[in-house]
Amino acid sequence: MAMDTKALIMEAVAGYTYRGEYVRHEPLGNGHINDTFLVVCNNGERDYLYVLQRINTKIFKDPEALMNNIMGVTRHIRQKVKAEGGDPERETINIITAKTGEPYFRDSDGHYWKSYVYIDDVTCYDMVEKAEHFYQCGRAFGKFQGQLADYPAETLAETIPDFHNTPKRYETFEKAVAEDICGRAASVAAEIEFVRARADFMRTLTDLQSAGEMPLRVTHNDTKLNNSLIDNATGNAICIIDLDTVMPGLSVNDFGDSIRFGATTGAEDEPDLSKVNFDLSLYEAYTRGFLEGCAGRLCEKELWALPVGAKMMTLECGMRFLTDYLQGDTYFRTHREGHNLDRCRTQFKLVADMEKVWDEMYAIIEKNK
Ligand code: GN1
Ligand code: MG
């Protein structure tokens, strides 16, 4: 029989050499996939804080390859940070190896865990409170891409194959509609229609990529605002976290995923759509930061496709939430009835808003490039 989570957490804690004695742990963050905890230890003089995360292996099927990616990428970033005179303890995550010497801990139930040093005196925002933070977030994700520009991409495992292959995601969606295993399709006919009307658009980026017009880069692939840490003292975004989906990918998707999550007046799961509007000024703030962070590295085609990336990631994410709703909410963690449907609707509202200001989105890129 599976052991309870508390017992497994304690087993994982015992699998690491933390400084001081274990005091307590608590859930950390709002991730939809992995289980994340803050572990507090104390040596009689001060606390030592660690992040401990159980990897969801239903989704990340090869956790050892995932950890190899993270070890390689953080080692690379650490060297860059050192070379620039930055603080390698705070400007990338520092993975702790388990007592076994491996970069992960495997518990008696077969779960894989990873752990890293908690970075203190930073804030992780779930919604943009000040445009400046979003600008900072853009800079940090742009810089992240620069730091990994010379990373040997071919050594990275694809932790989730076809992660941002939107046409493939569309096929999966159509299959979910056809199977309709929960009998929910009829009640979301409008949302299904919204997706279908944009089926052609979904090929835009993959077509450019197949034609060799879009360079493959090392990308983060989950560039939500809450995956960047803002230093409380300086207000600068100093560290990019959640490196599970670092893989070869498209720069415009990294740009786009940030926009879908941050350039909005409502939360990703806001049930009241009147509160959810695409915010062009936030889009501009992020664009400025991202282009500064990329420091001239993006080619003309990528610059042109930035708005496409924004709409693509928003549409894709909404479609993924809808697919999960149709399939019985088995992928994203949900906290209430219809949670995935609420999430889907905010994304589609943002897509519709973007379509209304499409020309302005291009103009903002032109102005800032
Ligand atoms: C998931 O677990 P979290 O919150 O880091 C998902 C992303 C989605 C995001 C939507 C591996 O990320 O792709 O954009 O939810 N991660 C995975 O909020 O599927
Ligand atoms: Mg993630």
Characterise this structure:
- The protein is globular.
- It contains 11 helices and 10 strands.
- A 5-stranded antiparallel beta sheet has the order 1-2-3-5-4, with helices on one face. Strands 6-8-9 form a 3-stranded antiparallel beta sheet.
- The N and C termini lie far apart (57 Å).
- Helix content is 43%, strand content 13%.
- Helix 4 (166-179) runs parallel beside helix 9 (300-326).
- The chain has 2 domains: 5-120, Phosphorylase Kinase, domain 1, CATH 3.30.200.20; 131-368, Alpha-Beta Complex (Aminoglycoside 3'-phosphotransferase, Chain: A, domain 2), CATH 3.90.1200.
- The protein has 369 residues and is α+β, with helices and mostly antiparallel strands.
- Bound molecules: 2-acetamido-2-deoxy-1-O-phosphono-alpha-D-glucopyranose and magnesium ion.
- Magnesium ion binds next to loops.
Overview in brief:
This protein has 369 residues and is α+β, with helices and mostly antiparallel strands. It is built from eleven helices and ten strands. A hairpin with a 5-residue loop joins strand 8 (228-231) and strand 9.
Keywords:
five-stranded antiparallel sheet; 10 strands; binds 2-acetamido-2-deoxy-1-O-phosphono-alpha-D-glucopyranose; globular; Aminoglycoside 3'-phosphotransferase, Chain: A, domain 2; binds magnesium ion; Phosphorylase Kinase, domain 1; three-stranded antiparallel sheet
Which helices and strands appear, and what pairs or packs with what?
Blueprint: H1 5-14, E1 21-27, E2 35-42, E3 47-54, H2 63-83, E4 105-106, E5 112-117, E6 122-123, H3 131-147, H4 166-179, H5 189-196, H6 204-210, E7 217-219, E8 228-231, E9 237-240, E10 247-249, H7 251-262, H8 280-294, H9 300-326, H10 339-356, H11 358-368
Antiparallel strand pairs: 1-2, 2-3, 3-5, 4-5, 6-8, 7-10, 8-9
Bound molecules: 2-acetamido-2-deoxy-1-O-phosphono-alpha-D-glucopyranose and magnesium ion.
